[in-house]
Design brief:
- The structure holds two protein chains of two kinds.
- Chain A has 18 helices and ten strands.
- Chain A is an alpha+beta fold.
- Chain A has three domains: 237 residues, no CATH class; 76 residues, no CATH class; 160 residues, no CATH class.
- In chain A, strands 2-3-8-5-7-6 form a six-stranded mixed β-barrel.
- In chain A, strand 6 and strand 7 form a beta hairpin.
- Chain A starts with a helix and ends with a helix.
- By secondary structure, chain B is of the alpha/beta class.
- Classes of the chains: A alpha+beta, B alpha/beta.
């Protein structure tokens, strides 16, 4: 139709006007592309992280719940509390297996722990005055003290339960070739390099440990690991927290435990669940299956969500920026279109005089704007695609920095040790809060670049948003064409 | 009130009458009830004749021209074109196929070339012509413009040349009637004479009805009839 030919002539012959409109749309398109790319990529990251992150449920002892029934200020109350504490039914490997028979539980693993003394080896320890024995010099350890046994044995039920190795706290420095084939069955152990050096032990050596009754147990060394965790210990210590930790498999420890009444092992199960929303239902099921109600279930939801906090912040910022850009861009385009139409009044008068209908005229003006908008949107998308990656990574890097700072701040707030963040207590050498996991900083390192991608979805979204914006902002000017009287226009001209 | 000089006004439509204005009045939308731009005008315009509409400023010349050219509809009375009431005709179609309009200020689109302005009018009329550019050049030549001017932007043409382009544009769809508003108002005497010759040729040789709104005595000398408009009191 001739109106499109006219539109093209008008576009190509009125470059200044169209470049101005195009430049504004290009800036809007560029900003929209960046924000849409960040938004979509952030959503994908959050979804993919959410899908890949293992939803874990653990059992913990609710001390507060137990203590609230007793007046611990008085001697009698403390005795009652102690009695209650001693009578709390613990749960066994079989109990855990029963608990795991739940539709919402996909799998489970556990660690089994107890302590033994050295027989053929000595504990890696040097007593110093700055290392009060009452705290065993290991505030982040398993509550060792002078009366405790020399070595903590941690038995893992499967490779996925070896969280210290998974999160990089421990790294294997030496390992026997077939270690992983035999690691989960039999008396095989991984020992700390510090303990190995202290006792001059090497791979394939055998070590003997003994319980309080003097029964000895022999283990074969199939791996030596190093502890990478930076000590948060304010006291000087030659050895790392895990120097006297011996890693083995849960079966070996359960067998030892079953064969000897004097050993009291503790099981620490982790259940992989289908959805965090089912945690309460699972807890109820556990209680029905005999779990003492002083235990409560806890999930890693907070940790999992904290890991994508930075990405969520960037996404939220991008959305806000997009809305503001569209609002400002819409207003600017509206004003520009109104000025444009007033400027073209004479042209409208001429077109109307030679018998071009209002509808065709509106279509011509609209198609002019759409062509300019379309070209500007495509160029804007190209520029935006180029800029979106560095911009999004820059935004995320500041988020990571702020996240790291807040993590450091939290460490400082607690003096690096001591009280739990919820104020529920904790003592020196007891259960320390894991500061790193609270802010999700270690996990977010995996997203040290967001790498926003401009894909077909972004382009389509941009076109829909851009063309809608152009349509809405030009609506008023298009309507005003209908109201122009050629007589009035030509009279004004005269 | 209108005054007919050479001929008494006739309301009955004769065979030769192409346009008949019968008791036409026009009020602007923001005017008071007794305020008229024109009131009770009755004129007949015949094929093959040139008419002049004269009047002082404010007498309603441009308003009358707008009513004749279908840019506005009269608020009272009737205007018949070829026996049909303009109220019953699509005025866009009327303007792009039945009537050619020429203005004092040419009203060409400045960003287009001379031929593009003419082709635009051809397109608007919906005529199916294979080579519109050639047709535009022929029209330009018929009003005394060289074909070299076809690709020139109209702003690079003189006033007389622009007016010739405007006339060529108005002729592009071979209308039965040409309406011109002060077509020589911006032109020198020589050019005015040449433009008027074109109009005479269109009326007397091609049988079109030419209506010229003018102040110019030169124009009044060459027309067949003059209608004087007086300001409505």
């Amino acid at each position: 139709m001739f109106i499109f030919k006219n539109a093209w002539i008008s576009i190509t012959r009125n470059k200044g006007r169209n470049i101005l409109i195009g430049a504004i749309i290009l800036v809007i398109a560029c900003a929209c592309t960046i924000t849409l790319a960040i938004n979509n990529t952030a959503s994908d990251l959050i979804n993919s992280y959410s899908n890949s992150y293992q939803k874990e449920l653990t059992l913990s002892f609710d001390r507060k719940q137990m203590m609230k029934d007793f007046d611990t200020n008085g001697e009698e109350g403390r005795e009652q509390a102690k009695e209650k504490f001693e009578n709390i039914a613990s749960y066994s490997v079989d109990d855990v297996a029963t608990f795991a028979e739940n539709d919402h539980i996909e799998s489970y693993y556990y660690t089994y722990s107890f302590s033994l003394n050295g027989n053929s080896i000595e504990k890696a320890e040097i007593e110093t005055e700055s290392q009060p024995g009452g705290f065993g010099g290991r505030p982040n350890g398993k509550g060792q003290n002078k009366n405790s046994l020399d070595f903590t044995l941690n038995g893992y039920s499967s490779i996925e339960s070896m969280s210290e190795f998974i999160n990089g706290t421990y790294t294997m420095s030496e390992i026997r070739d077939n270690a992983w084939d035999i690691a989960f069955d039999g008396n095989y152990v991984f020992i700390n390099k510090e303990l190995a050096d202290y006792n001059e032990l090497v791979l394939n050596d055998k070590i003997k440990l003994e319980d309080e009754d003097g029964n000895t147990y022999e283990f074969e060394i199939i791996g030596i690991f190093e502890d990478n965790e930076k000590s948060v210990d304010s006291m000087m210590s030659m050895f790392s927290n895990s120097a006297n930790t011996i890693v083995t498999n849960a079966n070996a420890l359960v067998n030892i435990d079953n064969s000897n009444d004097s050993i009291k092992g503790s099981i620490n199960p982790t259940f992989i669940i289908d959805d965090y929303e089912n945690a309460e239902a699972i807890q109820s099921d556990f209680y029905e299956k005999g779990l003492d109600e002083t235990y409560v279930v806890q999930t890693n939801q907070e940790t999992a969500e904290a890991a994508v906090t930075s990405v969520k912040n960037v996404k939220s910022f991008a959305t806000t920026f997009l809305i503001i850009t569209l609002l400002i861009g819409g207003v600017v385009l509206f004003i520009l279109n109104m000025i444009n139409i007033r400027e073209r009044k004479y042209e409208i008068g001429v077109f109307r005089t030679i018998g071009i209908s209002k509808l065709k005229l509106t279509m011509q003006f609209a198609s002019e704007l759409l062509v300019v908008a379309f070209v500007a949107l495509i160029i804007g998308a190209g520029v935006g695609a180029t800029m979106s990656k560095p911009v999004s990574n820059s935004l995320l890097s500041s988020e990571i920095e702020s996240s790291t700072n807040s993590s450091e701040q939290m460490k400082n707030n607690f003096g690096g040790m001591g009280e739990r963040p919820d104020g529920s207590g904790g003592n020196r050498g007891g259960n320390m809060p894991d500061f790193n996991k609270m802010s999700g900083t270690p996990n977010i390192q995996a997203y040290d670049s967001i790498d926003a991608v401009v894909n077909i979805t972004v382009i389509l979204e941009l076109l829909v948003i851009g063309l809608s914006l152009v349509f809405v902002s030009s609506l008023a000017s298009m309507i005003s064409i209908q109201r122009f009287s050629p007589l009035t226009i030509l009279k004004e001209r005269s | 009130m209108a005054k007919k000089i050479k001929e008494n006004k006739k309301i009955d439509i004769k065979d030769n009458v192409i346009l008949s204005i019968q008791n036409a009045s026009y009020q602007y939308s923001d005017a008071t009830s007794d305020e008229y731009a024109i009131k009770n005008i009755s004129y007949d315009f015949e094929k093959g004749k040139i008419y002049a509409i004269r009047g002082r400023s404010g007498s309603g010349k441009t308003t009358l021209l707008s009513l004749i050219s279908g840019l506005e509809r009269c608020t009272e009375g009737t205007i018949l074109f070829d026996g049909k009431d303009l109220k019953d005709i699509n005025l866009d179609t009327y303007r792009n196929s039945q009537i050619g309009i020429v203005f004092q200020s040419y009203n060409l689109l400045p960003y287009m070339t001379a031929s593009e302005n003419i082709i635009l009018s051809l397109d608007a009329s919906g005529q199916k012509i294979d080579n519109k550019k050639q047709k535009a050049i022929e029209l330009m030549e018929s009003v005394g413009l060289k074909s070299d001017y076809a690709d020139r932007r109209v702003l690079r043409l003189s006033g007389g040349e622009q007016q010739r382009v405007a006339i060529a544009r108005s002729l592009s769809y071979n209308p039965k009637m040409i309406v011109a508003d002060e077509p020589t108002g911006n032109l020198d005497k020589q050019t005015e004479s040449e433009i008027l010759d074109i109009f005479k040729k269109l009326a007397h040789e091609e049988g079109k009805c030419v209506i010229i709104v003018t102040h110019s005595p030169n124009v009044c000398e060459i027309v067949d009839e003059i209608y004087d408009l007086k300001k409505v009191k």
